Amino acid sequence: MATLLIAAGAFIGYIIAYHTYGKWLSQKIFNVDADAEVPSKQLRDDIDFVPTKKEVIFGHHFTSIAGTGPIVGPAIAVFWGWLPALLWVLFGSIFVGAVHDFGALMVSLRNRGQTVGEVAGRLIAPRTRILFLLILLLALTVVLAIFGLVIAIIFSLYPETVIPVWITMPIAIVIGLMVYKQNAELLIPSLVALVIVYASIYMGAYYWPINIATLFGIPDMGPFPNAVILWTFVLLAYCAVASVMPVWLLLQPRDFINSHQLVLALGLLLIGALVAGATGKADLVGSAPAVATNIPADAPPIWPFLFITIACGACSGFHCLVSSGTSSKQVESEMDAQYVGYGAMLLEGGLAVIVILACCAGVGMGDFTRVGEGAAYSYQPTLATGTDTQLAGLAAWETRYDASKGWGAFGLKDKIGAFIHGGANFLGAIGIPMKLGISIIAVLVASFAATTLDTATRLQRYVIQELAATVHIKPLTNKYAATGLAVALGGMVAMMPASATAGPGSGGLILWPLFGATNQLLAGLAFMVIVFYLRRRNKPIIFALVPMIVMLIMPAWAMLWNMFNGETGWFYNPEKQHLFLFGVAVIGLQVWMMIEGLLVWSKSKGHLEEQLPELSTIRPAVATTSAGGSN
């Protein structure tokens, strides 16, 4: 019953929050204006700046922010118990994450689509622009590495996902050409695409699983699978191409298609959770501890690490990059900002709630083991030790979250698998076979990560070009050179080993707390920009000031713990000195930016920042048809 009540209560609560708190922010704080000219129309170039229907831009925004973060983070964090994770997701997404995303979007819309880093230079101090861009460079490098690695792991563990994920790319290009060149309506082609994607999921599960190592005759051996390494580089090569293409050609239609696919899968998960809870098949209380006491001795403390382990799903600094980096350049009216910025974050919070339930109540419904190779594989019930009974309940959860193995054994593969298998159990409650259910959920994870990956590459390209222009490195102002550097840095970090004896690409769990801490510090700094924007306009700031303080203190505390904690700290470990240097750089930049803010705090209230120069009256001629068929 707890599963049913939590699943239903969370989504009802999000709907209420959208129409109350979200509406207050939109109308009373930011005063959205239907007549305000937005960047997509001011600077329209039909490459990055493209006026877009709110349903289409919502699809892009949601799929870009909801990568593997709201899946991997909660899947790891429930080892502390499901209750702390649930509380942080529910209240964090409403009062922290959605405020952050919506605020960053509005600030960017009011500043010609500039990123929060660029705006910081005028709202706080000129030097903060460079500081912010450097932090963005570091954060996006880790994002590219971790998300590329996660998709590669999915493709390696679940080869049935390969065709469904890749087939969306050519379909998206066809739809993009139809909509942009022929002014076709987007809805019908995207629904046809959805049917094709789900047909490919079925074909991938039962007929066409693809193992890239086998396909190219490469032995899949060693401490870390060669398939993961190969897929990582293939994915980064794809991102290099996708990130320089016009947004209407691939990014927008691909994300719109994926949004249908992902929302459908999320809806199936929610219905499955409700049915499993109502019928008693899913028992949250009996399957996992609300607050765990048997945790690995070497695990980090819940306080502050809960707040960086679960980033996306509660609050994520990466979202400010999407809000101000791509979405603000496509929103066609300020009236759409609440729907896109606040609404998408609440839906991501809903996804994180489902992940928590799947990793606890779903896993407790019974675990499964993959048996066989190629198209002949199947999933067989995992038996409890010494019995012919399927491993289920608390025993199944404790097997997945085995404290005796230590924190170091909490790999990304196991945690992603907990959600996929638990989610497939929910789908099984509504009659979907386990083999097909696992394929649907695995495609869900890979598709979310893929949309984030090439959006992050595009954002990193912007950051590198901005930095290059600022410090006068002319070659890197070229979008192709900047993109090449972006994927090269991401690939280097992705191949980082967990230890001297482990293979390349095995350091995923090391990267996650690094990603979490850097990402959440970025959220705190984005909140600082939002606070200064409101303070200079004599607007209330307490609702943003408190989250800002939390998101500055918690991740800094976690980063310092990682750097200096006893014998396990990065400072004391020769194999992790590069992580220590990374941490020093991030903390140093944060402290510097906070000092810049404090220096201008007292004289900022009621004093508007320097305004942008007037736009040139001469604008390039472009097509008059916006993406999504809107004029």
Automatic annotation (TrEMBL):
It comes from the Bacteria. GO terms for cellular component: plasma membrane. It is found in: Cell membrane. Coiled coil: none annotated. It is a multi-pass membrane protein. It holds the Pfam family CstA. One of its GO terms (biological process) is cellular response to starvation. Its main location: membrane. Keywords: Cell membrane, Membrane, Transmembrane, Transmembrane helix. The chain crosses the membrane at residues 85-109, 130-155, 161-180, 187-208, 228-251, 263-282, 302-322, 342-365, 436-459, 480-498, 510-534, 541-560, 580-601. Residues 4-556 form the CstA N-terminal domain. PANTHER family: INNER MEMBRANE PEPTIDE TRANSPORTER, PEPTIDE TRANSPORTER CSTA. Belongs to the peptide transporter carbon starvation (CstA) (TC 2.A.114) family. This is Carbon starvation protein A. It comes from Gimesia chilikensis. The lineage of its organism: Bacteria, Pseudomonadati, Planctomycetota, Planctomycetia, Planctomycetales.
